[in-house]
Design a protein that fits this description.
- By secondary structure, this protein is α/β, with parallel strands linked by helices.
- It has a domain of 181 residues: NAD(P)-binding Rossmann-like Domain (Rossmann fold, 3-Layer(aba) Sandwich), CATH 3.40.50.
- Helices cover 41% and strands 16% of the residues.
- It has a 7-stranded parallel β-sheet, sandwiched between helices. A two-stranded parallel sheet has the order 7-10. A two-stranded parallel sheet has the order 8-13.
- Helix 1 crosses helix 6 and helix 2 crosses helix 3.
- The longest helix is centred in the first third of the chain and has 19 residues.
- The N and C termini lie far apart (62 Å).
- The relative contact order is 0.12.
């Protein structure tokens, strides 16, 4: 099967933007569905990308938008649910509706983003709903070529994980950290995006589920310490035990913005660590976190320092003229 047009749901988001850019560079025609065109304005200038305003809660609108596509990538997910976007509607019902639409429209290829450690008996509602979404689309596996990706936490420029800690570290004298020993295997957003693009037309990946993780496992405390090291900051870290971690989650979920919820704390009861290395057919060698985070947490890589030096030197020369 030759894929020419790919529809990406969630293409304007953190991971989606990287996937859309790589698809565009590879020569695919890409359709990005969004409820808010303004959120996708950074994609509009890409030569092979079309941004469509679409209410995916409306089956007819979604089917019309998908009608000329050869493949679909679903990246839509929420970390914190609200009355408009519940885990059930976003993680379970939407994938089912999307797979059904693909079957009806004759779109054979579907790539779906789930989450590492998602399972029917997982401790959090988030992880259970992700597992329900996987089960819902598996019903269509006889008609569709489906690939499911289950990444650990994803980092990169614009992430809401390490950037959040970087912001907090800059403004507080100490960090009170819930679940400090929770384990993660962070993977770079560009590696995740490359795995999706490489899998798109690779029939070795059909009807398979892939766990995605970086080269190193860290505790949450170690990740926060990494961020402090990059920023050149020193802050005491007070790790909370399980009961107080849930108390912190309760307090934070009541605040505007919901930095964390009790359900997030429950997710951290299972280690977000892969059981196997990244499969060779995905063609991705994961990048070390230490190589990437100085670039976007401080913009102090040798390249950016060099460019700043050149700019400063240029201004000095012009000032003398």
């Amino acid at each position: 099967m030759t894929v020419k047009t790919v529809c990406v749901l969630g293409g304007a988001g953190f991971v989606g933007s990287s996937i859309v850019a790589k698809l565009d560079a590879a020569g695919y025609k890409v359709i990005v569905l969004t409820r808010n065109r303004e959120r996708a304005r950074h994609l509009i200038l890409l030569p092979n990308v079309q941004v469509l305003t679409c209410d995916i809660a409306n089956n007819r609108a979604m089917n019309d938008a998908l009608s000329n596509c050869h493949a679909v990538i679903n990246l839509i997910g929420v970390l914190h649910e609200n009355k408009n976007n519940t885990f059930e509607t976003v993680h379970h019902q939407l994938p089912r509706r999307l797979a059904q639409a693909c079957e009806e429209l004759g779109i054979n290829r579907l790539l779906h983003m789930s989450a590492l450690r998602a399972g029917k008996y997982a401790p959090s509602k988030y992880l259970r709903s992700k597992a329900a979404g996987e089960a819902a689309i598996s019903v269509f596996s006889k008609k569709l070529d489906i690939t499911v990706f289950k990444p650990s936490v994803i980092f990169g420029r614009g992430d809401s994980f390490l950037n959040l800690f970087a912001t907090i570290i800059k403004f507080v004298p100490l960090l009170v950290l819930g679940k400090p020993n929770a384990k993660f295997q962070p993977i770079w957003v560009e590696d995740v995006a490359q795995a999706f693009v490489n899998a798109l037309e690779n029939n070795e990946t059909y009807d398979k589920t892939y766990e995605l993780g970086g080269p190193t496992v860290y505790s949450l405390r170690e990740l926060v310490q990494k961020v402090m090291d990059v920023l050149g900051k020193r802050r005491p870290i007070i790790g909370l035990n399980n009961p107080f971690s849930y108390v912190q989650g309760l307090v934070l979920e009541l605040l505007p913005g919901k930095l964390m919820t009790r359900d997030n704390v429950r997710s951290m009861e299972v280690d977000s660590v892969t059981e196997l290395p990244i499969a060779p057919e995905l063609g991705v060698v994961p990048t070390a976190l230490e190589v990437v985070i100085p670039d976007y947490l401080t913009n102090q890589t040798p390249r950016t320092v060099y460019h700043k030096f050149r700019s400063a030197a240029g201004r000095a020369i012009n000032a003398k003229r």
